[in-house]
Structure formats: C-alpha cells, structure tokens
Amino acid sequence: NAGVMQNPRHLVRRRGQEARLRCSPMKGHSHVYWYRQLPEEGLKFMVYLQKENIIDESGMPKERFSAEFPKEGPSILRIQQVVRGDSAAYFCASSNRGGYNEQFFGPGTRLTVL
Amino acid sequence: DAKTTQPPSMDCAEGRAANLPCNHSTISGNEYVYWYRQIHSQGPQYIIHGLKNNETNEMASLIITEDRKSSTLILPHATLRDTAVYYCIPVTNDYKLSFGAGTTVTVRA
After folding, report:
1. pLDDT tens, residue by residue, B43-100
2. With an 8 Å Cβ cutoff, are B94 and A4 in contact?
3. Cβ contacts (< 8 Å) between A108 and chain B: which residues?
C-alpha cells in the first residue's frame, strides 16, 4: 500500500523562477494538506484541499502561492517568482476524511532558491 | 487550540521506556491530544491520540491526567530508530495541525 508520494524530493530554483511541487495522496484519500517547514522551525499549515476544492487556504501567503487538487492527478503547490525566503521543506499529508483522523505525511520536497 | 509546553530535549537508554511529558493546561473539552514524531529529514509520523481515556497502540501508550491538563507519551522499549522530535498537539480541527518546537529525543545505545 503506497504511502503519500511527493516529487521532486529536491528542487533547486533561481530567484524569479517558478516551483511546482507535486503530491499524490494515499490510495482512497481525498483530503490533502500542505505544510511548510522553514529551517530550524516547526511545520506550519498552509492549505487544505479536497478534490477540486480549496477548503482552507488561511496559511498560504497572499501572493505568488497557489494550490490545486484536480479531479484527476496529483495535488500541485505552485510558487511563482520564487525568492530566497521560500527555501524550505514542503510537506504534503493526506487523510481519508476531515475531522479527528490522523494525517499521513509524505517525505517532503526540499526547495532551495539560489 | 491550546498552548503546549514540552521539554526541549531528553535522552533515553536503548531498551528502556521513554516517558515524554506534555503540559496543555488550557486545553478545551473538545480538543483531542495528538502525538506525532519527525525523524530527521522525514515527514511527520502519526503516533497516537486521545481525548480522556488512556490509549495504547503498537507504537506507544498515551496517559492523560484526569483534569486533562497534561499527558505523557510512553515508548515502552525505546530503540535507536525512535530518535526523533516528538510533538504534542491539541486538536479540534485536525486539518490545522500546529507543530511547535517539540521534544528532541535521543536514544543512546
């Protein structure tokens, strides 16, 4: 039973480029969450999506960041015009429903902005 | 969500029980206590959760005080692979897990 998959595992971008991070949830899971972990800090919630819907994006920066979870295919976290401060580990998690269920995390994508 | 206080670090001998405390004195009646851990450079891993009663699974036991102001995660026989940062997280809406500084547990041979 494959777990949550994220790719790429490592991504290097120059300032001003776009970064696309992909997340495939566990089989049967329709809820996806993105978190960001800045160096030496704890994970911070960014966005919660269900298929084709953004449920809560209160943790997303207002500009340059967007997320989607289409009917088919993985969830995408997109960062436009990256800056050095975007360098972080981005984790995706999934669950089979909202509520009190535990979230299953992927291995993360480590973004480095040069 | 309630604030939590955890010791920043602790050491444990391999094969011994590790008892990880968490203070959550402002927890509300409908907040569960979730425990996750993060092994270096990996994604967090769910361990266990509870509301009022003590809970046990294949990974750990969770002891919650009667007044619910604190809890203890017990790893019954710590191994070197249990070295990780452990997070105690009160949760009402689970989709906003809030990871603080946690406790860095180092299991020594």
Report:
1. 999 999 999 989 999 999 999 999 999 999 999 999 999 999 999 998 876 678 888 8
2. no
3. 41-43
